[in-house]
Amino acid sequence: MFLKYLGAFAVVLVVSIPYLARAEQEGAHQHNESDLQLSDAYIRQFIPAAKSTAAYFSVANHSDKTRVLKKATISKIGRVEIHEHIHTEGMMRMQQVNELTLFAHKTINFQPGGYHLMAFDPAEHLKKGDKLTLTLYFANGEQLQSPIKVVSLRDEMSQQGHDHSQHKHH
Ligand SMILES: [Cu+2]
């Protein structure tokens, strides 16, 4: 009876060794807790009389943990919302997103036609070339900051290689 018990124990040990070895390997390949990267942030100048404008950036999660983006703020901007574009009944419209999941080793690009920040209530007139500060807030309390550049629509078009800015209509 005792021997039978011992035998079972030995089997369990042998089976678990490969798992232990694997866990150790993964442990050696650990990333920094704050392995998030925020890049390419820009905000469009407000068009005269417009109540809002859009801002874009990329955020990469190089860590092994999922992050949840809860909120974004931009200095000198009264209110910022996270938006997405959705297609419903052949129409494209946008709606606010309360939280956005950023999976491990994934990048989310905020770009025209997709996710974007909607900026409302600027504290002052934003001039082309101004640098503001973008802050992202995550569910685990982490924050990410980056300068965010004010661009004109014309700059943005030329960056994307569709520069029609020389067309003048008189
Ligand atoms: Cu929007």
Automatic annotation (TrEMBL):
Query: Pfam families, per this entry?
Result: PCuAC
Report TM segments. none
Gene3D superfamilies to which the protein is assigned, alphabetical: PCu(A)C copper chaperone
Q: Output the superkingdom of the source species.
A: Bacteria
Q: Which PANTHER family match?
A: BLR7088 PROTEIN, COPPER CHAPERONE PCU(A)C
| Protein name listed in UniProt | Copper chaperone
